Every structure is written in structure tokens, then in C-alpha cells.
Amino acid sequence: MPSPRKPEPSPARDQMLLDAMRVATFSFKRWVAEVLTDRNMTIGQFWTLSDIGDHEPVNAAHLASLRCVTPPTVSVIVEELVQERLVTRSPSKTDRRVVVLALTPRGRETVGIVWRHIGSRLSEATRSLPLRDVESAVRVLNALESTARAVPVAGGAA
């Protein structure tokens, strides 16, 4: 059986996807900001915290690559998170010269609270959509994620 043909890319189709991504990103940032305001935390601090949780233990160079920022920027944000007792620094178990970052229980709780809030807002926003539309959106987002994973990240793991 022949495989189904994929539609040819078109500028109109690409622009429609880009516009939708911009709107979704704006909404997403607003939802994150809603919960961060109460915690006196910036979006940059939240993403750093979330990335540490996703990749811990992680060294600062690798974290900077994941965050697409410079090592000095990561250093400043991490110091703020350490001061708030959301992140710890410790020697790597494989190379004592390397310092790795990990979430504290309080940091893990904070990340969970923010993601649950986002999940709640997303559920609320999509409640009236048919399941097939949600499944289509998931396929689009998964395609974006798999393409992004193909791009190598500099800095190395801890």
C-alpha cells in the first residue's frame, strides 16, 4: 500500500502555523506569569528551574546551552535560585572538579505548582475543542519537539 502523500509546504500554511505559535506562546507566557507573580519569580528563573529539574544533575555550561543564554547569565540566575533555596550546587559524582545543579524539594514543589497551573489553564482553554482537534495539536507539537531534539546542544552533560 503506498504511503500517504505529505502536503507540500506553502507560505500561507507556514504563516498560519507561525501565527498560531506566536499566539500560543503569548498565552503560555501569561499563564506562567500569573503564578510566578505570587512567588516573586521571573520567567527566566522559572525556565532555569524547570530545565535543571528536567536534566539534573546538570552543570552550568550545559544548562546555559539548554537555556540558549551565556554562562554568566546562568550564573546570576542560579545564584538567585540558590539564595531562595530552590537549587543546590554540589560536586559531580563522576568528576569532583565539576559543580552540578539540582532542585531542592522546595524547587521541585515550585516547578510542580507552575506546571499544574499551566495544565489547568490549558484544559480550561481547550475544553470545548473536539478530541480530534486536540490530537492534531499534539501531533504538531510532537513534530516540533522531535525536530528540536535533532539540534545538538553544546556544553555537555554533567
Short recap of the structure:
This protein is mainly alpha-helical and about 160 residues long. It has a domain at about 25-125: Orthogonal Bundle (Arc Repressor Mutant, subunit A), CATH 1.10.10. About 65% of the residues lie in helices and about 10% in strands.
Write a structural description.
This protein is mainly alpha-helical and about 160 residues long. It has a domain at about 25-125: Arc Repressor Mutant, subunit A, CATH 1.10.10.10. Helix content is about 65%, strand content about 10%. The protein has helices at about 10-40, 45-55, 60-65, 70-85, 105-125, 130-150; strands at about 60, 85-90, 100-105. A hairpin with a 7-residue loop joins β2 (about 85-90) and β3. The longest helix is centred in the N-terminal third of the chain and has 29 residues, at about 10-40.
